[in-house]
Amino acid sequence: MVKLLSIGGSDASGGAGIEADLKTFQEYGAFGVATLTAIVTMDPSRNWSHRVHSLEEDCVRDQLETAFAGVGVSAVKSGMLASVHAIECVAEYLERFAVAAYVFDPVMVCKGSGDALHRELNELMIQKLLPRATVVTPNLFETAQIADISVPRTVDEMKEGARLIHERGASHVFVKGGGRLPGCKHALDVFYDGKTFHLVEDELVQSGWNHGAGCTVSAAITAGLGRGLTAYDAILSAKRFVTTGLRHGFQVNQWVGTGNLSKWRDRFH
Asked: What span, in angstroms and rounded, lies between the C-alpha atoms of 235 and 248?
């Protein structure tokens, strides 16, 4: 059984974060292990506003020790790292256990928010984690933060962002554009391996029930890497997986909806 670790925030609403990752690992026929760095709650009385509750260093470290030393994992993904100690602990364990397959999802903003969650932590994440990443999966906002450019609005600008991020140390860069580029009629992303750019396109699902899509795609890439796929093939598989889930998405409440991940079965078993 392939064992995979997700490090990040728990989403109390169930659609994103660790919850989405573990569902994704299950769909890929893998055994999921989790390390929580924070718990994200939503306030129904304040239009579903997000609140981030960071966990203490000892709690994060004990979970990492359980996962790495106690269970053993084939591939690792990190998502929300809401404190200095979380970032430093993750970097320490990636090095200590010589992790060969690591997906860095540089969560800097919650969906629906235009501001960085912890802007002061961005550079620390870039320094400590980006050079260790097999694949880094920034959205357009995060691409701008890491590459120190304006938010990309064209494919060429996405490519430039990917190139600059690769120069900062990541082995492979997957810039998630989705349907956010002006005039784009497909869900369009850019993959860069340091030599070649690949456009990754699929159907643009317009339902709006897409909470957790970014978490899900990075978790699916992690599962693909854990099963021995190349970075590019893992990304193609993840893209199909997420698109299928979004096509069958459903409304959770009056504020958000999410993809139905059980609608896609990749027969790895």
From this structure: 20
**Sequence-ordered list of residues with C-beta below 8 angstroms from that of 158, at least 6 positions apart, any chain:** 140, 143, 152, 175, 177, 181, 189, 190
Domains and CATH numbers, the chain: 3-263 (3.40.1190.20)
**Helix, strand, coil share of the chain (percent; to 5):** 40, 25, 35
Residues 6+ apart with CB under 8 A from 142: 106, 107, 108, 109
Q: What is the pLDDT of residue 119?
A: 74
Which two three-digit tokens encode residue 196?
Answer: 């070649």
Q: Which amino acid is at 102?
A: Y
Q: SS3 for 236?
A: helix
In this prediction the pTM is 0.94
pLDDT of residue 207: 83
Confidence at 208, pLDDT banded by 50, 70, 90: confident
Rounded mean pLDDT of 129-146? 97
